Amino acid sequence: MTLPHAAVETPVFMPVGTVATVKAVPQHLLEEMDVRIILGNTYHLYLRPGHEAIRRMGGLHRFMSWERAILTDSGGFQVFSLSELRKVTEEGVQFRSHLDGGLHFFSPEHSMDVQIALGSDIAMAFDECTEYPAEYGRARASLDLTLRWAERSKRHFDEHKFERPWGDGFAGQAPSLFGIVQGGMYLDLRRESAERLVAMDFPGYAIGGLSVGEPRERTREVIAETLPLLPKDKPRYVMGVGYPDEIAEYARMGVDMMDCVLPTRAARHGLLFTSEGRLNIKNRKFAEDQGPPDPNCGCIVCQRYTRAYLRHLMAAQEPLSAVLNTLHNLAFYLETMRKVRAELGAVGVD
Amino acid sequence: MTLPHAAVETPVFMPVGTVATVKAVPQHLLEEMDVRIILGNTYHLYLRPGHEAIRRMGGLHRFMSWERAILTDSGGFQVFSLSELRKVTEEGVQFRSHLDGGLHFFSPEHSMDVQIALGSDIAMAFDECTEYPAEYGRARASLDLTLRWAERSKRHFDEHKFERPWGDGFAGQAPSLFGIVQGGMYLDLRRESAERLVAMDFPGYAIGGLSVGEPRERTREVIAETLPLLPKDKPRYVMGVGYPDEIAEYARMGVDMMDCVLPTRAARHGLLFTSEGRLNIKNRKFAEDQGPPDPNCGCIVCQRYTRAYLRHLMAAQEPLSAVLNTLHNLAFYLETMRKVRAELGAVGVD
pTM of whole model > 0.90? Predict the structure, then answer.
């Protein structure tokens, strides 16, 4: 996948860089891990420091000193998480900031403006993320709204995409806009959503509305049903997944892109993913464990630090704890995808 | 200065690594900044994870994966900071842990045992850090106690120093024990303390009891009065100082070693030291300032990030804020000392 700011090998896992930082990790260490693309959250960046400020400073890449690729979400998912604070109409969503309670409004057009101002390589259509569980009628109405918003997103994006802050750099390229399949857990609605979205001809497609509390088997089922309806020659992105074995499984099913806060968030809570399973590094049994977090991992944390040391940092609530735990978890996720890529390359899939 | 774990160029500033971590900074980035020696706090390490646990794991160097030099303080300073929780007798100090209120006792002998178990390159004699202000009689009594404790520290240390956890490594070398000059702000007491301490023949000497709230001019005066009484051919260490201009001034006066939490602690509160003065990076005026923190600094933070970005990280309470601010402040302190070394070398002082 060739984007203005980077060539990205797929299937790829994208670390989440919520507010212009992958929490606790300096950018040069992401580069050393060969991260090529990260995700930024439009909702958070819109509120702080603000998309206009970021545009004035040359866009998100320059602001955070990350010259590789960035995908931004539409802001929809976060806005819909603020269930107490929002009001949805045909026009868009009114919501209150979680920071200061101030009133804001996102429409498909506004979400596009914000993402173009940020200067992401890949923007996402503004969608309504259907809650789980949802009645059939509710999922149907939500899907229809999302499709009308997809059209508005695309129209506005295509008109304004050359207003991206990187000017004539990157051979005059513009960012891309991906559409998002919704439909709750209803397979017929997912099919309909995929077909109508593909008819709009986006350069890439995402499957949204997953990881919202449904059983894992439903997630898999929706992906399995939807994926074959999305063009194989365009990137297919499943949003917000998952555990290491899940991302490997979905990648083998044909998913090209995934993102999830799990490796970074779990790290800050002391949960480490390893080739031998999950470690809760806070556990007392690691107090004098001189083995590395994962004996089969080549990351800079496993090459140098012990479980005992990582446990100590966590117990002492030291800021280095989040740094090292996150570095390991991200390395493990990236290595998981590297192995899947090697495996898919080897057997000649796609 | 050649220590078991490192050759250290002096004058040197030692970053403080309180509980086996220089707060927020991965060890490999300290190495990349050419840090050769850090300070560990005996009191904190004794409480958590415990010196016996650290000894069983091969000592502090191995525990924290820091194969360069470590100096440990005696625990005295921290214990005396717990003013409500401690009781001093001729034998030592009884105190309550700030973590769980548990009762503990430090004597000179016990402080030596702990420091030997940790395996530091340089241990410090157990002293009573005289509070400021202190009456003459109080400072005199405190100084006498400190000298009796220095003798006990030295006797016990010399008997047990080969029990350091690094075994026969490092060409069979043992750690060194430095004595500490006290005497409050009374110059005659400082002279007496220095002379009686030098008579005990330590391999290095520290000036303690400074940076306890006294005016800066008193600090300078005590250093100026005491330093000439300490042997020039042995390391002379001023504990717990200071601002960048102070450490440069003291180094020019002949001080070989200094440590201070200031660069690391101030960083976490958003105070950056630069060649153009101090920056409070939280200040709104930096919101869109695209200059580096310090235009004359070559550190990895100044080479890559803007004031606006550092301000944003602080405003968003992002963990990367502490990492980057600390990296810059430490780089600035190290560079300050590098310049003084070049200057002293150039004019052939000492």
Answer: yes
